[in-house]
């Protein structure tokens, strides 16, 4: 997994349901940054353990040079996501 070393590290993903049930707000905190990125979640899929396997955002949350993200979870294995999109960001779990 040496290629995964270039992935940007996410230290927290917080999903807050919308009061009208239209779209959830997602707050993402990257390691080394104090300010969270905020985006609306248009679609989300989880696995049987409740881990996020796919997210579709309403805007870009990544830069051209980002190929993926590593989500660090205390007391669990890290979760890796590939990222793609030109107008919106999609995260796909890859492990």
Structural class: mainly beta
Strand residues, percent: over 45%
Distance between the termini: 11 Å
The overall pLDDT, averaged over residues, is 87
Low-confidence runs: none
**General shape:** globular
Query: Helical region count?
Result: 0
Q: Helix fraction? A: under 10%
Record field, number of beta strands: 7
| Main sheet summary | 7 strands, mixed, barrel
**What is the succession of H and E elements?**
EEEEEEE
Strand order of the largest sheet: 1-2-3-4-7-6-5
Using the CA coordinates, give the radius of gyration: 13 Å
What would the keywords be for this entry?
seven-stranded mixed barrel, mainly beta, 95 residues
How would you summarize this macromolecular structure in one to three sentences?
This protein has strands spanning 8-16, 24-30, 37-46, 52-57, 68-71, 79-84, 90-93. With 95 residues, it is mainly β.
Q: What does this protein structure show overall?
A:
This protein is an all-beta fold. It has no helices and seven strands. It has strands at residues 8-16, 24-30, 37-46, 52-57, 68-71, 79-84, 90-93. A seven-stranded mixed β-barrel has the order 1-2-3-4-7-6-5. The N and C termini lie close together (11 Å). The relative contact order is 0.22.
